Amino acid sequence: MATITFKGNPVNTKGSLPQVGEQAPDFKLTACDLSDKSLTDFKGNKIILNI
Predict the structure, then answer these.
(1) Which among 28, 50, 23, 49 is positioned nearest to 38, based on CA atoms?
(2) Buried b vs exposed e over 8-38: b needs ≥16 C-beta within 10 Å?
(3) What is the pLDDT of residue 51?
(4) Is the dihedral angle over the CA atoms 49, 35, 31, 5 positive or is it negative?
(5) Could you report the per-residue pLDDT of 1-51, keeping only the tens digit for each?
(6) Distance between start and end Cα atoms, the chain
(7) Minimal CA–CA distance to 28: which of 18, 17, 15, 39?
(8) Under DSSP, is residue 42 helix (H, G, I), strand (E, B) or coil?
(9) What is the largest CA-CA distance in the chain?
(10) What's the pTM?
(11) Chain Cα centroid distance, residue 5
C-alpha cells in the first residue's frame, strides 16, 4: 500500500504503484461510447496510462 496526494489530501492505495516502464497487466475499461476496451486492443501502439 502506498499513500499518494489527491487534490491536497492523502489517499491510501490498494496494492503497490507501478514503476515507470513496468509492463501493465491486461485490463478492461468502458469507453465514452460504452464499448469495452482492453489493453490488448491497443497492441502495437504507444500508450500512456494516467494512473
Answers:
(1) 28
(2) eeeeeeeeeeeeeeeeeeeeeeeeeeeeeee
(3) 65
(4) negative
(5) 778 898 999 998 887 777 888 888 888 989 999 999 999 999 999 988 776
(6) 15
(7) 39
(8) helix
(9) 37
(10) 0.48
(11) 16
